[in-house]
Design brief:
The protein has two helices and no strands. 63% of the residues lie in helices and 0% in strands. The protein has helices spanning 3-15, 20-30. With 38 residues, it is an all-alpha fold. It has one domain (3-37).
């Protein structure tokens, strides 16, 4: 997965009120470096 896809996934997760917190927590758990993309 390239950085653009990560950023798009993060923004989509944040835009979805119902799953944003859970999705972000999962992404961050998978790859701590994603924190830098937020």
């Amino acid at each position: 997965m390239n950085d653009d896809m990560w950023i798009r996934a993060l923004k989509a997760a944040r835009a979805s009120a119902g799953v944003s917190q859970e999705a972000l927590a999962e992404l961050i758990r998978w790859s701590p470096s994603t924190i830098a993309a937020i």
